[in-house]
Each structure stands twice: as C-alpha cells, then as structure tokens.
UniProtKB/TrEMBL annotation, chain A:
Gene3D superfamilies: 6.10.250.1280, Fe-S cluster assembly (FSCA). It comes from the Eukaryota. This is MIP18 family-like domain-containing protein. Belongs to the MIP18 family. GO terms for biological process: protein maturation. InterPro entries: FSCA_dom_sf (IPR034904), MIP18 (IPR039796). It comes from Rhamnella rubrinervis.
Automatic annotation (TrEMBL), chain B:
The keyword Repeat applies. Essential component of the cytosolic iron-sulfur (Fe/S) protein assembly machinery. Required for the maturation of extramitochondrial Fe/S proteins. WD repeats lie at residues 16-54, 70-102, 114-155, 159-190, 208-239, 315-354. The lineage of its organism: Eukaryota, Viridiplantae, Streptophyta, Embryophyta, Tracheophyta. One of its GO terms (cellular component) is cytosolic [4Fe-4S] assembly targeting complex. It holds the Pfam family WD40. InterPro entries: CIAO1/Cia1, WD40/YVTN_repeat-like_dom_sf, WD40_PAC1, WD40_repeat_CS, WD40_repeat_dom_sf, WD40_rpt. SUPFAM superfamilies: WD40 repeat-like (SSF50978). It comes from Rhamnella rubrinervis. Keywords: Repeat, WD repeat. Belongs to the WD repeat CIA1 family. CDD domains: WD40. Signal peptide: none annotated. One of its GO terms (biological process) is iron-sulfur cluster assembly. This is Probable cytosolic iron-sulfur protein assembly protein CIAO1 homolog.
C-alpha cells in the first residue's frame, strides 16, 4: 500500500457546464463520444475530483466507430504515475458497464504523457491480464 | 490439388450455449471420435466451470452438454487439456491451481489439485506418453510434473527464463521437448539432459525473425517438423526444424528456425491457432473471425511466392472475440470455436459445388 497520494497536489481545472444526458445507451443509436466522456468523469481512485477536473481526459480523447463497434480512449496521467494501470482499469470497467458487450475498447495513455507508455498500454490492452486484474480487485463498486 | 481447384466454406453445424461467461478454451478428447466412440470435448470459462460435451448421435447437430464440472475452481478456468489416453482432464485456473479430473462412470471427480504457481495458471499440456504434465503462469515460470502411480503428481522442474507472463505450453507431438510462448514476445524450447535436469535450449525472439508482441498460442503440424505461432503483432509465423532433431545435448539438437510469416490478414490480436492432421491451419482472432490457411500449391514457378494462402475467412463467426479454435481429431473436418460471447460453435469445412 502506498503511503500518501501519488499526486497529492493535483492541478484542478474548472468543470465545464454541461447539459445533463440520458443514461440509456443500449439502443441502436450511434454512440456519442460526449456521452462516453460524461460517464467517465467520475472515475478516480485517489481524489474526490473527477478525471475531467484533473485533465486526465478531455473530449478530444475519445473516438467511437459505430460501424465496427469500437471505442478508442486515450488518457493523460502524471509522467511517473504508478496508478496509470489502475486508472486505465477503472475506465475499462466504466465502459463495460455502460456499453453493449460487443463493443471493443482500445485504451492508451496519451502519447508522451507517461514514462512507461508502452508497458502501460500493453497491459491495458491484454484482455486476459485485464480480466484477471478485475477478478482480483474490487472494481465492482465503481 | 484439392485446395487449388475447389471452393470451400465453413458451415455452421451447431451453436452450443450453457456457459454464463466468456469461453476461454476448449479441448477435444483424443480417444473419442474414432472406432464408433462418440466425439467428446471439454470447454472452460470465466464462469469458473468446465463443461463436457458429447455428440449424441451421428446426426451432425446433436451435441449435448453431458457434465458441468463446478465448485472446484474459485476463479476463471482458463484452459483444459486431456491426457493422451483420454482418461484424465487437467484444468488450469486464475485461482493459481491446476485440477486433475477423472471420469468415473460418467461423473467427473477432481482427483488431484496441483499447487505451486504464485498466480494465474494459463495453460497445461500433457506429453505424448502421458507421463509428464507442464503448466505455465503469469508468475513467468513453467512447471513440469511427473505423473505417478495412483494419480500422484510430483513437480520435477520449475523453469525460469521468460521475463513475463507465460501464455501457453505445448509438448512436441513425439518427443519430450516442451515449448512455451509468452507476453515477453518469445517462444522458448525446453529439454532435459537425460538426467532430469531441464533447461531452455532455444529462445525464438525478434532476432530470429520472431514476433514483436505477445505470443498467444502455438500448434504443431502432424509430423512435428513444423509449428505455427500466433500473436498480438497480427501475424502467424511458421517455424521448422530438421526431422533428424535429437533431444537435449547441443551436439544433437537441431534448432528451430523461422520459415514464413503470414501477415496482412488479421487486424486485431490473434488468440488461437491450430494445425489439423491434414495440414490445414485455423486461426481465431479478436475481430470475431475465423480464418483458414493452407499451403500454397499453385506456386506458378515463383521462387518468392507465398508459402501459405488464405483459403477462407468467416467474418462474424461469433459476436465477440474468438479465444480458441480446435480441429477435431476425428475423420471429418470439424472445427470447434470458443468466444467471449459465451458460446461454442461447431463448424464443418466443406467444399462447395458451384
């Protein structure tokens, strides 16, 4: 267990005003990246601030291909953030919860934002490793 | 010249439902499907169970679930493998154990549990004679167990060398030489020196024209002279060795070398590859498709022509990722596939008359 927070003094940005959206995403309508963004806002293992306020995600970092049923997420962390894989797992759990199971998720750390970018990306995109990690941890409460 | 002149299709025979989570792996019982014995295979799942399926009659779409092996593994069952005699089934789980099951008059009983790995066990393989069992894990090690009288299993080696998660182990079809493939992008070859000292005798990595990402599976051709590997790098690679290969000491061992890379056909991770007795290669990938490859017989005199060609691609074979494809050991060209969608499908590779 780490003593103290990894990012004890995060830079906090103002939350943008946003119109509330419905949560029903299982219909046949195209998946709107902004909807995904709203859902992922509240995920953060360390702080009461949302990931938007910490600039982990921005609206530009989500792309959806409805025809193929694929979602690509890129997220930003602090250079040596040891929680990068945990943040990634939290994002994956949230996505799985809200989207039809056949959607494929590719998740990457925003290029240049993490020292071990390749290693983090490889772990997060190995679905066997993700499955085992999710079985290990209590991600159910997210 | 069958594959040159004919058109083929993968006919879906049956869809098997029952598992309540993704199906990771399946294994055909090698002692069934011949001499009038109905074909049997096992499947394992994220639902922590193993299911045994049997063909109830000669009618093709007659597969039924005969048994559910539950209340033993406490986490995902990742893979399963039958002993060569078909009497025992080994199952590998994320709970870090390997269970050994015996069919006692139709009921499967867990007769032994192999412990030792530090975390998730990913794969198991029996050697050709059934005297040895190999397991591998995310703990980066490969273990070799000796099967004793009374179904006791003694660990005779803990093999280190891989620098990451080991995804699969597979014994050579005729010799006691073990192959493993890993998240560290390499394939390792392990043999003993004749005195029960096991070691890595070869590593196939990028310098050997090897894979550039996780190697998920490997499969030998019927003769054991060639193997095919599949990877997250979106390629299949064919490897070969001299058929006069001797085990163990460096004087006799003929190294494996890269023969050919099949690339440009897959656009997402290839999780499974299996070489049939007849030399047909099937792949299962994260794009929900099954692909069939055969040796390219119409070389047209081209020295640089492709050695293998795509015979067919079954798009949307499943609704989600395909985790395992396995040819049946029997007479017919039957292929079973397992998917994240929780189902297993039975296919027949058939020629199409125009």
């Amino acid at each position: 267990m780490t003593l103290g927070l990894i990012n004890a003094n995060p830079v906090v940005h103002a939350k943008k005003e946003r119109v509330a959206r419905t949560e029903d995403l299982h219909g046949d309508e195209a998946v709107d990246p902004l909807e995904i963004y709203d859902i992922l806002l509240s995920v953060d293992p360390e702080h009461p601030y949302s990931l938007e306020q910490l600039s982990v995600l921005s609206e530009e970092s989500i792309t959806v291909d409805d025809k193929l049923g694929r979602i690509l997420i890129t997220f930003i962390t602090v250079q040596h953030c040891s929680k990068a894989t945990v943040i990634g797992l939290c994002l994956i759990v949230k996505l799985k919860h809200y989207f039809p199971p056949h959607y494929k998720v590719d998740i990457k750390v925003s290029p240049g934002s993490h020292a071990n970018e390749e290693s983090v990306n490889k772990q997060l995109n190995d679905k066997e490793r993700v499955a085992a990690a999710l079985e290990n941890q209590t991600f159910a409460n997210l | 010249m069958e594959f040159v002149d004919g058109r083929f299709e993968l006919r879906e025979i049956q869809k098997l439902e029952g598992h309540t989570d993704r199906v990771w792996s399946l294994a055909w019982n090698p002692a069934t499907g011949v001499d009038g014995i109905p074909s049997v295979f096992a499947s394992c799942s994220g639902d922590k169970t193993v299911r045994i399926w049997e063909q109830s009659s000669s009618t093709s779409s007659s597969w039924l679930c005969k048994a559910v092996l539950e209340d033993t593994h406490t986490r995902t069952v990742r893979s399963c493998s039958w002993s060569p005699s078909g009497k025992l089934l080994a199952t590998a789980s994320f709970d870090a154990t390997t269970a050994i099951w015996e069919n006692v008059g139709g009921d499967f009983e867990c007769i032994s549990t192999l412990e030792g790995h530090e975390n998730e066990v990913k794969s198991i393989s029996w050697n050709a004679s059934g005297s040895l069992l190999a397991t591998c894990s995310r703990d980066k090690t490969v273990w070799i167990w000796e099967v004793q009288v009374g179904s006791e299993f003694d660990c005779v080696a803990v093999l280190t060398g891989h620098t990451q998660d080991v995804k699969m182990v597979q014994w050579h079809p005729t010799m006691d030489i073990l192959f493993s493939c890993s998240y560290d992008n390499t394939i390792k070859v392990w043999a003993d020196d004749g005195e029960d000292e096991w070691s890595c005798i070869q590593t196939l990595g990028e310098p050997n024209n090897g894979h550039s990402s996780t190697v998920w599976a490997l499969s030998f051709d019927a003769s054991g002279d060639k193997m095919v590997t599949c990877s997250d790098d979106l390629t299949l690679k064919i490897w070969g060795t001299d058929s006069t290969m001797q085990p163990a000491d460096t004087d006799g061992f003929a190294p494996w070398r890269h023969l050919y890379t099949i690339s440009g056909y897959h656009d997402r991770t290839i999780f499974s590859v299996h070489w049939s007795r007849e030399g047909i290669i099937a792949s299962g990938a994260a794009d929900d498709a099954i692909r069939i490859f055969v040796e390219n017989e119409e070389k047209d005199g081209l020295v640089d022509g492709p050695l293998y060609k795509l015979l067919l691609k079954e798009e949307k074979a499943h609704d989600m990722d395909i985790n395992s494809v396995q040819w049946s050991p029997g007479e017919k060209r039957l292929l079973a596939s397992a998917s994240d969608d929780g189902t297993i499908k039975m296919w027949e590779l058939a020629s199409v008359s125009c």
